[in-house]
């Protein structure tokens, strides 16, 4: 056997081994993806059909226009205890009580790890509390199968990390209009949301306007532009409850100011209950009430002027941190 044949055999064996390793890695990724999909689908479908209309304050429907006609919804957390499944020994919420009237704009203020973002996850039905109740418009969203799915149709959520799909801007905004079959209604909802979120300000300068592809995960857009598209997507649903979960904390100063402008106009013109989850005092400009969360409980709650005039120790700590970061 010649040296050349030996080298060729070794090279082919190496190539075959590398290919096999790549196949096994891809197989593992596919299995992880399938497991994640099963978890997501089980949450979205709630394990059962929708409840009967008689058990809810409105007929179960995905139509954004139907939800909007009902007006803002009240939100209530009653004695909620919660720990994440991955950390069952760490209590995130400890008997938390919070009552948000319909139409109120409430800031959920707290330091990192205080449990404030967990409220958004519970409200969306992504997790169930270990004890206590979460109610939307008087409906316990975990009492019956299908209630959580109903509650999600009342919500619009804008998170810290804007998530866009490899679609056009128009299609990304319309993505939240599940169940709306009428093309004219979809188009009107998209145009209204785009205008309210100031998406048209930058879309008009793009080659194809709203039909411009956003790119993979929205890479064709800046952080502020992506967040405004996400705001428009949430508004297109005409939600009864709008949740802003650290919606501007990951943006630079210029992008944050643009998003602030859009949100201020939205909150002043839209009829919905609003929860602003934040660790920044600057976000309080949008709200009329403040709930300070500390160690899984509501440390202070009331009108903004009253809370800021007589801050609890947890709020004083946040105020000092905010002043230090400003310096």
Written account of the structure:
By secondary structure, the protein is α/β, with parallel strands linked by helices. It folds into 2 domains: 1-35; 75-325, P-loop containing nucleotide triphosphate hydrolases (Rossmann fold, 3-Layer(aba) Sandwich), CATH 3.40.50.300. It is 43% helix and 17% strand. It has 11 helices and 10 strands. It has helices at residues 3-45, 64-69, 116-123, 147-152, 169-174, 183-196, 199-203, 223-236, 253-269, 304-309, 313-326; strands at 75-82, 93-100, 105-109, 131-136, 139-140, 155-158, 241-245, 273-278, 289-294, 297-303. The strands form 2 sheets. It has a 6-stranded mixed beta sheet, sandwiched between helices. Strands 2-1-4-5 form a 4-stranded antiparallel beta sheet. Strand 4 (131-136) and strand 5 form a beta hairpin. Helix 6 packs across helix 8 (223-236) and helix 8 packs parallel to helix 9. It is globular and about 90 Å long. This is ABC transporter domain-containing protein.
């Amino acid at each position: 056997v010649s040296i050349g044949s030996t080298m060729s055999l070794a090279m082919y064996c190496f190539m075959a081994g590398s290919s096999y390793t790549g196949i096994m890695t891809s197989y593992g990724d596919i299995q992880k993806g399938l497991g994640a999909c099963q978890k997501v689908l089980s949450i979205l479908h709630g394990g059962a059909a929708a409840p009967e209309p008689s058990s809810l304050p409105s007929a179960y429907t995905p139509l954004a226009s139907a939800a909007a006609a009902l007006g803002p919804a009240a939100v209530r957390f009653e004695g909620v205890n919660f720990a994440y499944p991955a950390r069952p020994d760490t209590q995130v919420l400890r008997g938390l009580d919070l009552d948000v009237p319909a139409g109120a704009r409430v800031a959920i203020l707290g330091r990192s790890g205080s449990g404030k973002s967990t409220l958004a996850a519970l409200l969306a039905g992504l997790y169930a509390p270990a004890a206590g109740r979460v109610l939307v418009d008087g409906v316990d969203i975990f009492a019956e199968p299908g209630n959580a799915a109903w509650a999600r149709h009342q919500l619009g959520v804008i998170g810290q990390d804007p998530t866009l799909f490899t679609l056009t801007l128009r299609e990304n905004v319309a993505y939240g209009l599940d169940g709306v079959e009428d093309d004219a209604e979809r188009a009107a909802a998209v145009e209204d949301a785009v205008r309210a979120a100031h998406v048209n300000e930058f879309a008009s300068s793009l080659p194809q306007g709203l039909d411009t592809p956003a790119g993979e995960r929205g890479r064709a857009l800046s952080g502020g532009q992506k967040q405004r598209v996400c705001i428009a997507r949430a508004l297109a649903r005409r939600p009864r409850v709008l949740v802003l979960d650290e919606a501007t904390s990951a943006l630079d100063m210029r992008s944050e100011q643009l998003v602030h402008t859009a949100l201020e106009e939205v909150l002043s013109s839209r009829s919905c209950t609003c929860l602003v989850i934040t660790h920044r005092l600057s976000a309080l400009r949008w709200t009329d009430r403040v709930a300070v969360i500390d160690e899984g409980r509501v440390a202070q709650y009331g009108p903004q002027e009253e809370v800021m005039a007589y801050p609890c120790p947890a709020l004083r700590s946040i105020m000092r941190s905010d002043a230090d970061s400003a310096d």
